[in-house]
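[Automated response] Your request has been received and processed.

Submitted sequence:
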Amino acid sequence: MIRSQSQCFLGIIITIYFFFCLLPLPNTFASPTQSLCRSDQRDALLEIQKEFPIPSVTLGNPWNKSIDCCSWGGVTCDAILGEVISLKLYYLSTASTSLKSSSGLFKLKHLTHLDLSDCNLQGEIPSSIENLSHLAHLDLSSNHLVGEVPASIGNLNQLEYIDLRGNQLIGNIPTSFANLTKLSLLDLHKNQFTGGDIVLANLTSLAIIDLSSNHFKSFFSADLSGLHNLEQIFGGENSFVGPFPSSLLIISSLVHISLGGNQFEGPIDFGNTSSSSRSIWKLVNLERLSLSQNNFGGRVPRSISKLVNLEDLDLSHNNFEELFPRSISKLANLTSLDISYNKLEGQVPYLIWRPSKLQSVDLSHNSFNNLGKSVEVVNGAKLGGLNLGSNSLQGPIPQWICNFRFVFFLDLSDNRFTGSIPQCLKNSTDFNTLNLRNNSLSGFLPELCMDSTMLRSLDVSYNNLVGKLPKSLMNCQDMEFLNVRGNKIKDTFPFWLGSRESLMVLVLRSNAFYGPVYNSSAYLGFPRLSIIDISNNDFVGSLPQDYFANWTEMSTVWDINRLNYARNTSSRTIQYGGLQTIQRSNYVGDNFNLHADSIDLAYKGVDTDFNRIFRGFKVIDFSGNRFSGHIPESIGLLSELRLLNLSGNAFTGNIPPSLANITTLETLDLSRNNLSGEIPQSLGKLSFLSNINFSHNHLQGFVPRSTQFGSQNCSSFAGNPGLYGLDEICGESHHVPVPTSQQHDESSSEPEEPVLNWIAAAIAFGPGVFCGLVIGHIFTSYKHLWFIAR
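Generated structure:
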C-alpha cells in the first residue's frame, strides 16, 4: 500500500516536472516582451539597412531596435533558434546600391531564402555569397548586375532555385554549377552570357532551364540600324552560340527548356535511337520546348514526336526548311505550336485539322501553299487561334473553315486567296479577330455580327471588295479595330459606328465612300476613337465648329490602368480550352497572347507600317477628299493628337489658333487647300512638331520663328506668295522684303493706323533733313553697284 502510494506520488512529481520544465510555455515566442531575434542577426540586418536605402514605409513593420527583428518587414526567423532564414526585399530599393563582399548580408549564414529582385542592385555578385551555405532559393532578378557569375555559387550545394534574369551578366555558365545537384530551376534569360560548353548533365533534379534572350539585340523591338555604337555599349555580340546543347538531353527531370533569343545554330540532333546516351527519348517529362529566334536550320527533326508529354513547341524565327514532319501529329498533348518565320513549304501540317488538344497554331511567314483536304476532321478540332498569314496559300477560302467551333483568332492575311469571303462566317459567334488583309478577295463583305458576336478586330484591307459596309457591324459590341482600306466599297459615311463605344481604330481609306461626314440627326461623335483615316475618298461638305467636341479619347492621356469599358473574358477562357488571358497591353490587340493589330498610315509624309499600335497614338487623316468651309475650332480640344492631315481638300478661312493647344502634335499637314490669313505665331511653341506642310494655300504674313519651323523644307511653304521670313528656311534665293512692323505685329488685335504727331515731326525735322542728305549722297554714289547686287 505504502509502495503504491509512493509510486503514485513519484508519478505526480514527474508529471509536474515535464509540464513546467521540459515543455515550452504557450507564450514563449508570442510574448511581446521576449525577443526571438538573436542580437548578431539584428546587427547584421541593421548593417544591411545602412547599405540598402530601403524606404521603411514599404516594409510593413519598420526596421528598428524597439521591435523584434524577426517581425521586421521581409524578415523570417527560425521559430526555435531565432536565426534569420528568409529575407525578401524585392521592389524596395529606391536608389542604386551594390553588393559588397563585406556586406552584413553575408553574416546571415543561416539564410535559406534570399530575394533581392528589382532592388536596383549594381556592380558584380561578390564571391563571398558562398558564405550563405544553407541557401536554397536565390533571386537576384531584374537588377543591373554586371560581370561574370562567381564560380563560388557552385559551392552552395543546397540550392534548388536560381533566378538571375534581367541583368547584364556576361561570360559562361560556371562549370561549378555541375555541383548543384538539387537545383530544380535555373533562369538566366535577358542577360549577356556568351558561348562555351553548358555543363549541366549532373543536375538530375533540374526541371526548368531558361537561357533565352541573351543575344543583346533581342532586347529591342525597334530598328537598330542607326545605332552604330550599340555593340560597344553592350560588349559586342553577346549570346549563347554553337549547336544545340546536347548535354540537356540526358536530364530526364526537365519539364521546361527555353533557349530562344540566342545564336545557336546548325541542325538539331536529338539522337535517333533510345540506346543513345544523349537521346530525346530521355526527356519523357518535357512539356515546353522553345528554340525561337536562333539560327537553327535544316529539317525539323522527326524525333520531336518522341516527346510524348510535350504541350508547347516554339521553333519560330529560325531557318528550318522543306516539309514539316507529319510524325509530329503524334504529339497528342500538344496545345500550342509556333513554327512561324521559317522556310517551311508544302502542305500545312496535318495535325492542325485532327481532333486534339491543340489550341493555338502560328504557321505564318513561311511558304506553305496547300491547306490539304481536311473537311472530315475539322469538325472535331478545337483550335482557338490559327495564324496562316504571309504564306503562298491560294484559291478560294474553303467553306469548311467555318466548321471550327471555337475559333477565337483567324489570320489568313498576305496570301493569294481569291473568290468571295465565305458567307458562313456570319454564323460564327466566337470570332474575336478576323484578318483577311492583302489577298485578292472579291464580292461583298458578309453580314458579320448578326448575333452580337464577340468580333473585336476586322481587317479586310487591300482586297477587291465591293458593295456597302454591312450595318450588322453595329452589333459588334466589342469592336475596337475596323480596317477596310484599299477596296472598292461604295457607301456613305457610317454614322452608326459612333454608337460603338469601344471603337478605337477606323480606317476607310482609298475606297469609294461619298457624301458628308456630318448629319445633325445621326452624328454622335466618336468618344473612344484614337485613329481615324478616311483619306482618298469622295467625302464632301463642311464641318460644324463643334464637330470634334465629343471625341474625348483624343484629349485623354493613355494610362494602362485606365479602363473605359469592361469586358468579361473569364467565361471565354474556359470555352476556348484554357487560353490564358494576359494583362491588358499598351497596344491595340486581344486579351489573349495571340494577336496585336497592325496598320499602315501616312506618317510624316511617308507611308509607314505600324506592326503594333500604341493605345496612346492619336491620328486624324481626312486628306484627299472634298471638304470645304472652315476648319472647326474644336480641333484644338484634341490635346493628345499626334498626327493631323487635312491636306488635299477645299478648306477656307484661317488656320485655327486653337491648334496651338495640341501640345503633343508631331505632324501637321494642311497643304493643298484654300486657307488664307497668317500662320498663328503660337504654333511655333509646339515643341514636338517635326513635320509641317502648309504648301499651296493663300497664306500670308510672317512664318513663325522657331526651331520646329526653321527645320522644315522650303517646299512645306511653297505656293504661298504672301508668306514672309522664309530666308532662313529657303535661303537667299527666296528672300522676300521684310514688311513693316505694322504688317506682322500680332500684339494688337487690329492693325494700328499710322498717325503722325506734328510735335514729334517738328522736333525731328532738322536732324531728319541732315541725315537724308547724307544718305542720299551715299546712295547716288553706289547706285550702280546696289542694282547689280540685287
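Summary generated for your ticket: The chain has a mean pLDDT of 80. DSSP finds ten helices and 47 strands in the chain.
If you did not submit this request, please reply to this message.
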